[in-house]
Amino acid sequence: MKWMQFFTPISLINWEEAYELVQQYPTGDVTFLDVRQPKEYEGGHLPGAKLIPLGNLEGRLAELDKEKPIIIY
Amino acid sequence: MLAGKDFRKIYNLSGGIKAWEKEVAVGPEDVGLHFFSSGTSSEEAIIAGFGLEMGLQDFYTSMQEKVTNESTKSLFGMLADIEILHQKRLIKLYVEITGVDISLEDFAKKIAEPAMEGGLTTEEYLQLYQTDFESEIEVLGLALAIEAQALDLYVRAAQGSKNREGYRKVLLQIAEEERNHIAKLSNYIDQHTDVR
């Protein structure tokens, strides 16, 4: 149901809020999702970030936990 | 896309990675993962982690001998001592997992060859960070970068082991240790902002 995306809240958070959020959970429970290209990831990424380039995201959603926080960049 | 697929807690990082003011890691997705291949057991993962801590301790100790600035010399000594504390934490974890009591010295004998923490080689770190080893603040920056690289490695290894819950938990425990190391090192840097 495509209309659902208009009712599911996506929060915009700054880096300090993201950092605080990560500190509140055990390591590994918050996923940094890097949706850039591999070369960009290689040049620098947030520690522990999972790389799924935007073009591949739809086919790889099963790799992500729906119940846990995901911070996308 | 994720919002319409039942993902419950999605956040967009404002400004992306360019806005991030904490440590970052570098390298491709699989860098260092050979230390934690699919056949690696929890015990072997701890031993590998210990080897990486030992490699970093050796690096700091060798740098302590090379630099001439006395305060930087003692900083390298302190960083090497911190790595010994990390090693002790890993031995504690090993004892918890295996039930086998073992000394630091005996544990060190299990290490075939120490490698540098975070999975990069010493040369790779030196090339990446071009550190002035006589400058305390630059040395601390390098130490922080290495710890961030280590955190990155353990979390990536854990991500690749979702079907092995016990093993994954061990990797995340080690990652948690690294996160604590980063926090302590960051605090140290904040408290010593006058270091050069």
Describe the structure.
- The complex is a heterodimer of chains A (73) and B (196).
- By secondary structure, chain A is α/β, with parallel strands linked by helices.
- Chain A contains 2 helices and 4 strands.
- The model of chain A has no long low-confidence stretch (mean pLDDT 90).
- With 196 residues, chain B is mainly alpha-helical.
- Helix content of chain B is 60%, strand content 2%.
- Chain B has one domain (42-191): Ferritin, core subunit, four-helix bundle (Ferritin, Up-down Bundle), CATH 1.20.1260.10.
- Chain B has helices at residues 42-66, 70-98, 104-108, 122-129, 136-159, 165-191; one strand spanning 10-13.
- Chain B contains 6 helices and 1 strand.
- The chains are: A alpha/beta (73), B mainly alpha (196).
The biggest sheet of chain A amounts to: 3 strands, parallel
Query: What would CATH call the homologous superfamily of the domain at 28-73 in chain A?
Result: Rhodanese-like domain
Text of the CATH class of chain B: Mainly Alpha
What would CATH call the architecture of chain B?
Up-down Bundle
Q: How many DSSP-defined strands of chain B? A: 1
Secondary-structure-based class of chain A equals: alpha/beta
Could you name the CATH class of the domain at 28-73 in chain A? Alpha Beta
Write down the overall mean pLDDT of chain B: 89
- Percent of residues in helices of chain B: 55-70%
Helix content of chain A: 10-25%
Q: Specify the CATH homologous superfamily of chain B.
A: Ferritin, core subunit, four-helix bundle
Biggest interface, chains and residue tallies: A-B, 44 and 42 residues
Task: Specify Rg of chain B, calculated over alpha carbons.
Answer: 18 Å
Q: Any guess at the CATH architecture of the domain at 28-73 in chain A?
A: 3-Layer(aba) Sandwich
Between the first and last Cα atoms of chain A, what is the distance in angstroms?
A: 25 Å
The helix/strand order of chain A is EHEHEE
Order of strands across the biggest sheet of chain A? 3-2-4
Shape of chain B: globular
Can you tell me the number of structural domains of chain B? 1
